[in-house]
């Protein structure tokens, strides 16, 4: 048998996944809101306002793609979030060990 | 003689125009900065952050086009700024009366 990326997720795993994704999204967007609030408080000219606009354009695009909850993508989604520090591996407790191993490996890549 | 849109601008008129445009741009962008600061202070969720992003996209596009300082466009640029309240007609003192009449007429359209 060759090593393959696991794609089957049980209902219980999906439930855990949705909760973790929701929490991570809240963390990331709260951090973004704080970052924008700080930058906006210290605004001195319109050029800096356009920098905030650029940041928001980029983060919005990033967030739209990153929280991919389709089953075959979940391993990659969690690996990315783990790598960026928006989740920790303990939060995924309850998910099959083989998947967790894949997530951890991908996060180190 | 038929009525035509005046397109010739003297050096003195161009100088006045540049000053007025600069001032109007500062007013409009300062107002935008204040508006964004207020909205960002009262941010409650990420949906409102995307609303601010949409506002900035729209205002940036608007501002890029609006402050058109090409000679044949100046009458239209000033009419638009006058209509929106970013300048008043007295600030254009020194510019030829026929042009001022055109600007006032266009602003009422």
From TrEMBL, chains A, B:
Residues 26-53 form a coiled coil. This is Fluorescence recovery protein. Pfam families: FRP. InterPro entries: Fluoresc_Recovery_Reg, FRP. The lineage of its organism: Bacteria, Bacillati, Cyanobacteriota, Cyanophyceae, Oscillatoriophycideae. It comes from the Bacteria. Keywords: Coiled coil. The keyword Coiled coil applies.
């Amino acid at each position: 048998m060759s090593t393959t990326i696991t794609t089957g997720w049980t209902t219980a795993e999906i439930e855990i996944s949705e909760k973790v994704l929701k929490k991570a999204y809240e963390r990331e967007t709260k951090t973004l809101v704080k970052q924008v609030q700080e930058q906006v408080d210290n605004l001195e000219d319109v050029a800096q306002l356009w920098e905030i606009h650029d940041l928001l354009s980029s983060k919005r695009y990033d967030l739209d793609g990153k929280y991919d909850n389709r089953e075959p993508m979940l391993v990659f989604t969690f690996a990315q979030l783990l790598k960026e520090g928006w989740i920790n591996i303990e939060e995924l407790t309850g998910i099959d060990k083989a998947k967790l191993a894949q997530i951890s490996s991908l996060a180190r890549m």
